[in-house]
């Protein structure tokens, strides 16, 4: 197992030091960029004031995005499973006709 490294992240003009495995550095930095962009967007709209409230709204927005994405993936998986089942039925029918 590799030693964790400390990554410096800048989110809404504040610096944070976070430890993570070296192989996860890119994902952590990408997540921080996404969080920073979401928080800046909320702050720039001017309807939410205060770092804590902005952070909570950003967390809610990102959680919502994640849940929608997860549901879409599950729906695709269900559709793909349905297609596989239909193909299996067609194969069963074709094999049954061959045996007649």
UniProtKB/TrEMBL annotation:
Entry GO terms, CC: cell division site; cell septum; cytosol
Quaternary data: Homodimer. Interacts with FtsZ.
Gene Ontology terms: biological process: division septum assembly; FtsZ-dependent cytokinesis; septin ring assembly
Location, primary (coarse class): cytoplasm
Protein name listed in UniProt: Cell division protein ZapA
Function of the protein: Activator of cell division through the inhibition of FtsZ GTPase activity, therefore promoting FtsZ assembly into bundles of protofilaments necessary for the formation of the division Z ring. It is recruited early at mid-cell but it is not essential for cell division.
Family: Belongs to the ZapA family. Type 1 subfamily.
Keywords recorded for this protein, A-Z: Cell cycle, Cell division, Coiled coil, Cytoplasm, Septation
Record-linked PANTHER family: CELL DIVISION PROTEIN ZAPA (PTHR34981:SF1)
The UniProt record lists the keyword Coiled coil: yes
Organism of derivation: Halopseudomonas formosensis
